[in-house]
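Here is the promised in-class demo. Please do not try to memorize the tokens; focus on the logic of going from shape to residues.
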């Protein structure tokens, strides 16, 4: 088995190479620290790659942008994204661009091996437990302070006095909170905050 591992962390590449030895003692691992290096690889037609593992956060061209060039150069070789990013949107974009799998680097060793074996057998692997980014992820720390006091039943003047800001600033924060949480009233904002587990 011949695997191309693209990751800019040498320690991770070394660890993955050891992992592959458990998958297949005869495995050969070609390493690249960037997509540019990976795309410049010369591969013998008699020993093509069976699998490509790709990190997303690389120096130079990032992994998502590099998926299509990789597939063009290494036609029919499955690409699995192995990344520290558990972002739902990134996984969906990787899938849309043709990746056959998406693995988080903190995945347990046995689970990672099972996923790679599944991909090598022609299946795909994408975690089902990744959820779409919640709107609460885009609430700033200061907006969270305002929302916390709103959840306590305070009116604008009380929030302003408590946080040392003007009424106008409180209204501005509330406007942004409503937009982020996709609500229109203070009551809806409180309910959304509790539903999302913000407070």
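The designed amino acids, position by position:
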């Amino acid at each position: 088995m011949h695997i191309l591992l693209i990751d800019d962390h040498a320690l991770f590449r070394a660890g993955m190479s050891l992992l592959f030895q458990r998958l297949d003692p005869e495995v050969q691992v070609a390493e690249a620290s960037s997509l540019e290096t990976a795309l410049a690889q010369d591969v013998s037609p008699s020993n093509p790659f069976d699998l490509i593992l790709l990190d997303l956060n690389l120096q130079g061209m990032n992994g998502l942008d590099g998926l299509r060039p990789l597939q063009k150069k290494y036609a029919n070789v499955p690409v699995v994204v192995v990344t520290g990013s558990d972002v739902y949107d990134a996984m969906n974009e990787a899938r849309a661009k043709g990746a056959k799998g998406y693995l988080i680097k903190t995945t347990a060793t046995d689970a990672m091996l099972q996923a790679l074996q599944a991909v090598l057998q022609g299946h795909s692997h994408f975690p089902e437990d990744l959820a779409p980014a919640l709107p609460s992820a885009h609430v700033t720390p200061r907006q969270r302070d305002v929302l916390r006091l709103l959840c306590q039943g305070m009116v604008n003047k009380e929030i302003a006095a408590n946080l040392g800001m003007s009424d106008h600033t409180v209204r501005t924060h509330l406007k942004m909170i409503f937009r982020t949480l996709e609500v229109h009233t203070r009551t809806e904002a409180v309910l959304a905050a509790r539903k999302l587990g913000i407070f």
